[in-house]
Amino acid sequence: MLIKRTRGWEVPERDATPESVYSRRHVLAAGAGLAAGAIAGDAFAQAPAGDDPTAGLYPAMRNMRYRVERELTEERIATTYNNFYEFGTSKTIWQAAQALKIRPWQVKIEGLVENPRTVDVDDIFKAMRLEERVYRFRCVEAWAMTVPWTGFPLAAFVEWCKPLSAAKYVQMETFSNPAVAPGQRATWYPWPYTEGLSIDEATNELAFIATGIYGKPVPRQHGAPLRLIAPWKYGFKSGKSLVRFVFTDKQPKTFWETLAEKEYGFWANVNPKVPHPRWSQATEELIGKNGQRVPTQIFNGYGDFVASLYTDRQNERLWA
To answer: For residue 13, what are the CA distances in angstroms to 8, 68, 69, 262, 283?
Structure first.
């Protein structure tokens, strides 16, 4: 008899989030946002790739090592229910985000590297091999989804950047353009949006730079043209529309850590036993599943891949 053994990062496919609800933060206003997104999403999902010259690269081959037994979040919801504070604090910023011009797009590689330089994003595409991975996504606001990202391993990009042995962290920054991103005119936020990983996290096989989603180029509201995905961490770690990678020997101070250090730490690993100061993390809502909640898993179910990264860091604040 064939016995299927479920791995630590898998849950039954029937419990997955449909292909249509996704973002970076503030889930407490989900009801109205989802209703509006459902209407707008039909039109957006049919929009052409427009000025993205990489459209012919999609869909990419799915890597079956990275999958979860969950139904995908519905694309219509995922593309119209988004956190992107650069364009505002509501979940319905997808239309405003279309103002972001994604070509030309320059990326700076700086700090402790053999050759600091500025490169065109399309040169990065030429150097990397794209693949699709299905990952769980867990927002710090206690909601979750399941998404098929296309992109390349961050480890491959780190190798391409050729960091020096002294580099212990990689700091990532998003674009800065208040003329098209009204949220960046809010002076109380520490713009630009800055995130970071330790080098061993960045070179872990799960760490991913997303360039596409649902077999298409990643849309602006999801962080076109380059977006970090670290699925064992809360979603605010996934910086969008990246323009700068700085290799450093010092732990970077991140956007939310700078803004509210008591609520958001650097490591931000998912842990159901460590509540946010204002809500529990014990369960999560599967977006698009009529309010269904399921137990949160430590490291978002990816402990088999990443738990060993933190064995010698037990004295640090590992959980946001």
So the answer is: 14, 7, 4, 36, 18
Closest residue by Cα to residue 93 from 285, 226, 230, 241: 241
Length of the chain: 320
CA distances from 108 to 81, 111, 219 (A): 30, 10, 21
Specify whether the CB–CB gap between 69 and 117 falls below 8 A: no
CA dihedral over 156, 70, 37, 278, signed as positive or negative: negative
* pTM given for the model: 0.86
- Tell me the mean pLDDT in the region 223-236: 98
Mean predicted confidence (pLDDT) in 241-265: 97
Q: Where are the domains of the chain?
A: 13-310
% of the chain exceeding 70 in pLDDT = 84
How high is the pLDDT of residue 15?
A: 43
Evaluate whether the domain defined by 13-310 bears CATH number 3.90.420.10: yes
Which residues are bridge partners to 209 per DSSP?
152, 228
Q: Are 300 and 272 in contact (CB under 8 A)?
A: no
